[in-house]
Amino acid sequence: MSIIVTPEQVAQATAVVRARTEHQPTIGLVLGSGLSSLGDGLGNPDVIHSHEIPYWPASTVSGHKGVLLIGELHGKHILILQGRSHYYEGLSMSQITLPVRVMVRLGVRTLIVTNAAGGINPSFSPGDLMLIKDHLNMPGMAGNNPLRGANDDAVGPRFPDMTEPYSARLRRLAHDVAAELGFGLQEGVYAFVAGPSYETPAELRFLRLIGGDAVGMSTVPEVVVARHAGLEVLGISTITNMAVPDPAPGTVLTHAEVLETGARVIPRLTGLIHGIMQQLLA
Ligand code: HPA
């Protein structure tokens, strides 16, 4: 799929969102599978359904709501995406990253992305939270990068630097907040695969060999687009299942299991994000 969203289309989508809110969000938060309840508790929220915004990709997966919330949290204006679109739904990388392009135009400077992921690192356990310190963009390396196509020089450079895709400063902050709340965070490399089929044992061996600690089907296209525009990014994976090449006999992985474990960690993830929001300047 190579449908490329144009700057004019991004501008049109942005205009519709702007017309619906007085808030001027500087922080964006993307909530992954089963994590929508993190949007509760937002002050003075404006609620926009994704189908009301032109060119906005529809969310078709259970556990993903397709709602955009803009409101206040700990004195900051924040835009929350409850549910995202994925490449495997049949859209292009450019289409699934339109929400981040809109956030950039609205003035968002910090992006917090969450997701559900399989743990490849054998020292991880389901229910762990992992800060993403780097990623492997498997589809991107194979030619399907969300920045493919004409570059919008007004947003960022043709060849954006990716030396520190996930802010070391925000990771330190997240570790401090978690420690204060009484739990630890894993840190590792997120391997982005297109899905929707889960990985075979051979694919998991390969991803481990090349340095992956967790595997999932989202986040990286959004982060590439955000970094292109110079946003500071924090990525948090919920390890919902182990993705190891030699699972116990009879083990099968289902989306239901992913959602169940995701629900179990919501209290910790909510505490973490609220703590981070309190500390952020913006
Ligand atoms: N693989 C890919 N994506 C995922 C997984 C997994 O094991 N768990 C949650 N999202």
Structure report:
The protein is α/β, with parallel strands linked by helices. The chain has one domain: Rossmann fold. 30% of the residues lie in helices and 23% in strands. It is built from 9 helices and 9 strands. It has a 5-stranded mixed β-barrel. A hairpin with a 2-residue loop joins strand 3 (67-73) and strand 4 (76-82). Helix 1 crosses helix 3 (98-106). The model has no long low-confidence stretch (mean pLDDT 92). The structure holds hypoxanthine. Hypoxanthine is lined by residues 116-118, 198-199, 215-217, 240-241, 243, 253, 258.
Features of this protein?
9 strands; 9 helices; alpha/beta; binds hypoxanthine; 282 residues; Rossmann fold; 5-stranded mixed beta barrel
Secondary-structure map:
Blueprint: H1 7-18, E1 27-31, E2 43-49, E3 67-73, E4 76-82, H2 93-96, H3 98-106, E5 110-119, E6 129-137, H4 138-141, H5 168-181, E7 186-192, H6 201-209, E8 214-216, H7 220-228, E9 232-242, H8 255-264, H9 266-279
Parallel strand pairs: 1-4, 1-5, 5-9, 6-7, 7-8
Antiparallel strand pairs: 2-3, 3-4, 5-8, 6-9
The structure holds hypoxanthine.
